[in-house]
User: Which sequence fits this backbone?
């Protein structure tokens, strides 16, 4: 199963959601942000090398608390990456590891469109603010166009009572509110997904519920 | 299915025009096969051929009782016939369109522009040149020089700022960009298979090198125009002499 984590806007915590969701699903998380990678990377081939034909997709997968297929950080690598190879790369990782979560970049360009077009389920990440909702709506339209069923919406960094019914009726998918928590913010850098680091916490419960939602697809 | 074709040689390529007429009362899907001795160059967006196109030829749906015109280029000499109908089928179900290819075609290119990669590499030079309007400089030069030759009586301010270093720098930069492109092309021509592959990769693939060819043609035109303007100006500079004696008497 391929799960695409997307959002219209950048900076809403897409990578954090993708990383922690992959931990909850025991999946591989692929850093699909070709221009601005976020997920931890050790030495070794990256998604840039895979998309430039220099490495096989499974060679670039790195073990860790969450299994990651990292992305390179150079602009030259981003320029050399052929995004049309991404669907084959994701399929290869899916065959080997079962479930793949891909962290899509912000925006509505081809590097978002290709993961959405091959995804079996899409998760939209939105901040609980009106302007973020408008962007999430645009991404939902793109997902619809590319036949990616919207499995859930993650309302990230919720502090007050989240506008869940509004979001639900606007985007037409189950909404999961992920509470703001400093441990979540640190989870990628510390390589400590919340479901492992604080399995009893509210955010961990939110990710477990999000994972259930997706597995039901 | 009626096929009516014409062809036209345009330099090294042949342009094939095909008109299809569906006389039946149902929509029909038609595959055309190119008979020229070369591949069909399909229309592309973001490097991905349009849906229904491959190297053999285009496939299109002709609605009931309607006509559809289609055309393509092929790098081969004309032949008779250039194109034939390969297959006609009912067009009830849309072909399984590859949505990943659709996404790449329809959405913007994700790649950062070459210019941001920095360094005075050939790559950035190609981009820098394509970003600036071609022929701008020679046009401006010729506009500056020629009318003043016809109307010498028009008073011109003499105390315009002396040709500053930056102006020459601009010209030197311009020549440098051409020089880099010419060197790249020469290196590609002289390289063996292995070197050429590496060079092709560092220069952004076949597409970029194809556009390099076009840019070099523009370079040649531009540089010749620049040379003409420069030699006209040199002649005028040699012939012109300010009437210093007369002016001294005036002051």
Assistant:
């Amino acid at each position: 199963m391929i799960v695409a984590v997307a959002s219209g806007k950048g900076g809403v915590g897409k990578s954090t959601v993708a990383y922690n969701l992959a931990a909850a699903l025991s999946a591989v998380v692929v850093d699909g942000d070709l221009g601005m990678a976020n997920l931890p990377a050790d030495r070794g081939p990256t998604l840039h090398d895979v998309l430039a034909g220099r490495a096989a997709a499974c060679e670039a997968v790195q073990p860790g608390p969450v299994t990651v297929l990292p992305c390179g950080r150079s602009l030259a690598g981003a320029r050399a990456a052929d995004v049309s190879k991404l669907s084959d790369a994701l399929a290869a990782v899916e065959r080997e590891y079962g479930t793949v979560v891909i962290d899509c970049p912000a925006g509505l360009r081809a590097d978002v469109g290709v993961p959405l077009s091959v995804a079996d389920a899409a998760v939209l990440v939105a901040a609980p603010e009106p302007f973020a909702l408008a962007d999430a709506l645009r991404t939902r339209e793109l997902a619809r166009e590319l036949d990616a069923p919207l499995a859930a919406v993650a309302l990230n960094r919720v502090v007050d009572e989240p506008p869940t019914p509004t979001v639900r009726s606007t985007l037409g998918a189950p909404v999961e509110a992920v509470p703001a928590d400093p441990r979540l913010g640190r989870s990628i850098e510390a390589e400590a997904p919340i479901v492992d680091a604080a399995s009893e916490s509210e955010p961990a419960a939110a990710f477990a519920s999000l994972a259930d939602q997706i597995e039901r697809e | 299915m009626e096929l009516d074709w014409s062809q036209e040689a345009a330099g090294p390529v042949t342009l094939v025009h095909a008109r299809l007429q569906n006389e039946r009362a149902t929509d029909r899907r038609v595959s055309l096969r190119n008979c020229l001795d070369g591949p069909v160059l399909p229309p592309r967006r973001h490097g991905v051929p349009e849906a229904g196109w491959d190297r053999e030829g285009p496939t299109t749906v002709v609605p009931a009782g309607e006509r559809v015109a289609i055309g393509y280029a092929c790098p081969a000499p004309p032949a008779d016939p250039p194109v034939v109908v390969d297959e006609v089928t009912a067009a009830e179900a849309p072909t399984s369109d590859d949505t990943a290819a659709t996404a790449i075609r329809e959405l913007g290119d994700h790649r950062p522009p070459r210019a941001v990669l920095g360094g005075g590499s050939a790559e950035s030079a190609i981009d820098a040149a394509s970003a600036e309007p071609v022929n701008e400089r020679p046009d401006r030069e010729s506009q500056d020089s020629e009318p003043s030759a016809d109307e010498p009586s028009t008073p011109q301010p003499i105390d315009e700022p002396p040709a500053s270093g930056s102006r020459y720098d601009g010209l030197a930069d311009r020549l440098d960009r051409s020089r880099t492109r010419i060197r790249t092309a020469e290196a590609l021509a002289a390289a063996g298979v292995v070197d050429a592959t590496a060079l092709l990769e560092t220069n952004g693939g076949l597409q970029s090198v194809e556009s390099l060819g076009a840019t070099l043609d523009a370079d040649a035109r531009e540089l010749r125009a620049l040379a003409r303007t420069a030699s006209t100006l040199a002649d005028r500079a040699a012939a012109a002499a300010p009437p210093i004696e007369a002016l001294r008497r005036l002051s």
About this structure: Helices of chain B lie at 99-106, 122-131, 136-150, 165-190, 193-202, 205-239, 244-250. The longest strand of chain B covers residues 2-10. Chain B has a mean pLDDT of 76.
